[in-house]
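in:
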């Protein structure tokens, strides 16, 4: 019978077909659905996150692993009721206004999903007003903003300010990242934190929502 270790190894190697067939076999054998997610699929992505942080895995491999994990999650999720699906918190992910770079942002969204967050990927060129509206609409616990240009990173400051003006700042954690971003900048604009990479962002988000 298929086991969790085989499933996490299949995620680690980004093998969609294997992930799908092992997940199906676990479902068919009556394995607890939450255990398939936590001990197989997310466990695999945890290893991916740790290896990526240590520089032992690279962006394309991480994207493949995340995609294969999603293939497994997509089989399990429809069989669970909304309340049975575990979530550490709801996070809106987006690239800021004027900025079209989405590779790092998509990596972040996939890794956060793999870490157990409910992720809504808003896309690119997201204005402060769009972040605010989406935070209200989805009752988000956190927004994670990405910026790759020195000319667009200022939109992060505008977004934090808009959340303050609207009175929502105390209810929503805000984390930021991207090539030109630093902890110093995060402190300067009053965000809750900065992460240099997607795996560290997952740890930061977990610590802020714990
Ligand atoms: Co652009 N670009 N680009 N580009 N581009 C850079 C960023 C640049 C550094 C290249 C250079 O000049 N050396 C430069 C910025 C200079 C600056 O501002 N300091 C630049 C420029 C100038 C531009 C244009 C203005 C070029 C032009 O048209 N004259 C233009 C702007 C368009 C716009 O956005 N309005 C532009 C366009 C493009 C393409 C469309 C061609 C393409 C984007 C395609 C796409 O995203 N779909 C592109 C690309 C590919 C790059 C480079 C080469 C690669 C970026 C990337 O995807 N890296 C980039 C140079 C470089 O970085 N070496 C460059 C891989 C990705 C995984 O890394 O996004 O950094 P990254 O994400 C990392 C971390 O930063 C972090 O996690 C990831 C790793 O785990 N992270 C977060 C990211 N977001 C996070 C959010 C978090 C936490 C961590 O939240 C908590």
């Amino acid at each position: 019978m298929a086991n969790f270790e085989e499933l996490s190894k299949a995620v680690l190697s980004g093998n969609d077909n294997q992930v799908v067939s092992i997940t199906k076999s676990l479902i068919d054998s009556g394995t607890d659905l939450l255990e398939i997610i936590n001990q197989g699929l997310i466990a695999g992505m945890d290893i991916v996150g740790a290896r990526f942080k240590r520089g032992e895995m690279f962006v394309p491999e991480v994207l493949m692993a995340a995609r294969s994990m999603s293939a497994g999650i997509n089989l399990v999720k429809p069989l669970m009721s909304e309340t049975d699906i575990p979530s550490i918190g709801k996070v809106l992910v987006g690239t800021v206004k004027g900025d079209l770079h989405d590779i790092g942002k998509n990596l972040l969204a996939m890794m956060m999903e793999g870490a157990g967050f409910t992720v809504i990927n808003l896309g690119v060129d997201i204005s402060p007003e769009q972040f605010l509206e989406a935070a209200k609409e989805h009752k988000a616990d956190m927004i994670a903003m990405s910026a790759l240009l020195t000319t667009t990173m200022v939109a992060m400051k505008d977004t934090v300010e808009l959340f303050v003006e609207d009175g929502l700042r105390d209810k929503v954690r805000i984390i930021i990242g991207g090539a030109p971003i630093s902890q110093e900048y995060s402190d300067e604009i009053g965000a809750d934190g900065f992460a240099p990479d997607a795996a560290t962002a997952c740890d930061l988000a977990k610590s802020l929502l714990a």
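note: Residues 59, 98-105, 107-108, 144, 146, 148-150, 175-180, 195, 197-198, 201 surround CO-5-methoxybenzimidazolylcobamide (CB under 6 Å).
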